[in-house]
Amino acid sequence: xxxxxxxxxxxxxxxxxxxxxxxxxxxxxxxxxxxxxxxxxxxxxxxxxxxxxxxxxxxxxxxxxxxxxxxxxxxxxxxxxxxxxxxxxxxxxxxxxxxxxxxxxxxxxxxxxxxxxxxxxxxxxxxxxxxxxxxxxxxxxxxxxxxxxxxxxxxxxxxxxxxxxxxxxxxxxxxxxxxxxxxxxxxxxxxxxxxxxxxxxxxxxxxxxxxxxxxxxxxxxxxxxxxxxxxxxxxxxxxxxxxxxxxxxxxxx
Amino acid sequence: xxxxxxxxxxxxxxxxxxxxxxxxxxxxxxxxxxxxxxxxxxxxxxxxxxxxxxxxxxxxxxxxxxxxxxxxxxxxxxxxxxxxxxxxxxxxxxxxxxxxxxxxxxxxxxxxxxxxxxxxxxxxxxxxxxxxxxxxxxxxxxxxxxxxxxxxxxxxxxxxxxxxxxxxxxxxxxxxxxxxxxxxxxxxxxxxxxxxxxxxxxxxxxxxxxxxxxxxxxxxxxxxxxxxxxxxxxxxxxxxxxxxxxxxxxxxx
Lengths: 253, 253
Fold this sequence. Notes:
2 copies of one chain form a homodimer.
Chain A: H1 19-22, H2 32-60, H3 65-111, H4 113-125, H5 131-142, H6 145-156, H7 164-191, H8 195-221, H9 225-252
């Protein structure tokens, strides 16, 4: 997730008189609607790929539609839980890690302030700053422990305070999206009992969905949408080819 | 370093020498043994979970070992490609994104330096710093374009320069680890033709593996290893219970 730019350069130059006039926007750290959409895209993209490949592989092994559905939906259930619960627990762990690091920095600020103050200097010196240039910053931070703590968390440890509600939201969104994505390639097998025919339909709708979601994903990540669409579809195609080949191999032994 | 001519506000265009001097020379993210181990743990943990759950689910649906192997190995092949290739392409996209943001910051530094300088102030002001305290820093950075660029990339955008070789290495490591992880719950079905019996062995070895890898994962992420072990095993158990239930439901319709 990229932090926001507070300024867009549109090729025009400006001549502001004071620094304040240049600061147009307050930087936001979070844009929740965008994060939800991102999670949907992630979940659906994943859900489209492996269930599709598994179903295609089993079709190649001449399994009946009913069995393909059994395997496919079981995989979707397992995958959604693995992604959803796994993601949630990972986010909680990160939050715990953040709180432990926060406490440690707090302790260091209180017990060994001179060492911590020297660390501020070290950080700023990496940018070619001389002691006489950064010492006002060090002194100001020493007199403002909360700001000092925030500064160390961000600039020494590179940690952002996680939002626990986001963790749950994100996990649920990804898991549900995975289910929705997985249903796309599997639904043809519900309606078309002959697996080989269902597979053709499945390939058609899934390919279309992969291209569409790849395109949308590209727009959201700021990458070339067409390229993203092709890559997403290609991964699906390659994964299903591998599953198909593997199924054939196992069946022949 | 004396200020360059092109740093004046009135919109003079960059001189080629200044542009060339903005060497893109950033800290490389070093490849460490720790990162490889982390990728192995990630891949194996994932590989242990869904293939296990799928196999358990199909056993519950009374599928023979041969079919469970077909489905399981097909899923492992598809999953490894999805994770491996998907991860690699995502990392490449991030690298492209980084280069585009880098170029944009470079352009902003050259064309609207006053705005960029004000942004430094904005960043530091978040830590309670007054203009008279941070202006030496701003001036020092203005005289050191490379450091200024590094500072903006890190503190404004929060971006680290990605290492393209790491992307490939990481993807391959995760994909291979996924395969190894997936084989653990599936091997019993190779040697034990009666699926229900194979499932018991599969549950046993997979549970042990989940606990072990969860423990190791906990040590690497700095979380309580026992807690991590239990969580990892729990996800596996829940995912397989869901797969089992789903398979039963689908078989009964």
